[in-house]
Design brief:
2 copies of one chain form a homodimer. Chain A contains 11 helices and 7 strands. The first copy, chain A, is α/β, with parallel strands linked by helices and 221 residues long. Chain A binds a DNA duplex (30 and 30 nucleotides) through helix 4.
Chain lengths: 221, 221
DNA sequence: TCGTCATTCAATGAAATGATTGAATGACAG
DNA sequence: CTGTCATTCAATCATTTCATTGAATGACGA
């Protein structure tokens, strides 16, 4: 840790930030925190991880300036420091998507026929909604929906897709979104709806990106 | 390494990219590669590191899709995979600049009175150059200058600043740039010129950013 | 074919990171 | 003041990363 010159010292700091992003669990934590602030316990529950482990990773994220902590009584609520964190996540993701062959392999293997799931862009969705042509569903859990969702969206958690689809008009296209571009829930929702005879597509990305783009967000009543 | 679900598998890939950025030496390697393609040996020489070490770090960067390798006879030339790498670097840097207190401390301590070194933006520089109001100097080593520089710039390596300044008009403002926003050379150049009685400022960032912005680049004759 | 040279690989040990456990801290309610 | 509960800290061990060394690979030129 010998600081020899200012550039190396700075690069060491930059490396701390990148290193903090360099762990799959921490990336997943960021995805969840992008939906809204969470306590350590809540986050641990979402991710199915021991509290102490999550706490430690949160410290790493905090040292890197990626999340901010705010004490509220017994709880400490962690949130993303700001939108620049999503930028960093997105640009790391972009590098991987463009150049890491393994990413392509995974996408082909798991997200079946992704090409056929041609995603809807934000602009396109706004036009479709304005003209009342589609039903927009938010497939995230109710608590995340409550913290902010696209205006006009209906909350249909993944587990209730089948039940919901029965009552939905079969001739109306459905657009689904969830936490972000690689959140599996919207993929599965679209897949399920299609197998039930509905016309369905995904939004190209999720709630945090919608919000970061400065588009209106609706809160639960 | 058990792949449980596609999201985790993807996040593991994203983490590989971030982890590859998570080392100061690799960041410095990226800065140098952003000036142009380099062989392992050349890069090792620039950084004053053993060749084998650089080679290993290059492998890590290659696995992450950050650099591409091209064999040319005995040499393997490494280059950045594309501009998205600079985006990722820049956004990681942005997070650090905004939220890591240590960065601020280093900047204040070493880059003395950085506020007084009000940097020139690219747009401003273009206007100043168009009107012939400033002398633009590129303080990088000649080999990097030869691989591409801002049109109209004069190559004045840091070591020759004092000699050069003697013959330069003292009443004409000088703008200096080098490898990037935190490259120390332009800071030192400005500092040296000012102490010699010249009016001098830095360009806000360096050559790679200039090029990435789609602005014209001049090559050595 | 042989020697040379750039690069990569393999092996070693030192250091950092990650997960787990249980104990410590700090704030609130009674 | 005491008990409870969310969070953090400390200690441990397994795993990974890092730098260094020296040997292997692979392409070129004689």
């Amino acid at each position: 840790m010998s600081i020899r010159n200012p550039k190396q010292a700075l690069y060491e700091q930059f490396a701390i930030v990148a290193k903090a992003l360099g762990h799959p669990l921490r990336l997943e934590m960021i995805e969840h925190l992008a939906q809204g602030a969470r306590s350590v316990e809540a986050l641990a529950a979402k991710l199915g991880q021991p509290v102490a482990n999550i706490s430690q990773h949160l410290q790493a994220l905090r040292r890197a300036g990626i999340v901010s902590a705010e004490r509220d009584g017994k709880f400490v609520h962690y949130a993303l420091a700001d939108e620049s964190v999503l930028d960093a996540f997105a640009s790391v993701r972009a590098v991987a998507e463009r150049h890491v062959a393994e990413v392509d392999r995974i996408v082909r293997g798991y997200f079946d026929a992704r090409d056929q799931m041609l995603p809807v862009s934000r602009d396109e969705l706004q036009a479709l909604m304005r003209d009342g042509l589609v039903t927009l569903i938010d497939v995230r859990p109710p608590d995340e929906f409550a913290l902010g969702h696209v205006p006009g969206a209906i909350n249909v958690p993944l587990s209730e897709i089948k039940v919901w689809s029965v009552g939905a008009a079969a001739d109306r296209e459905v657009v689904a979104y969830c936490r972000g571009p690689w959140c599996v829930m919207s993929f599965e929702a679209v897949s399920a709806l299609r197998s039930l005879g509905h016309s369905a597509r995904r939004l190209e990305d999720g709630m945090p990106e919608w919000k970061a783009a400065g588009l209106p967000v609706e809160m639960a009543a």
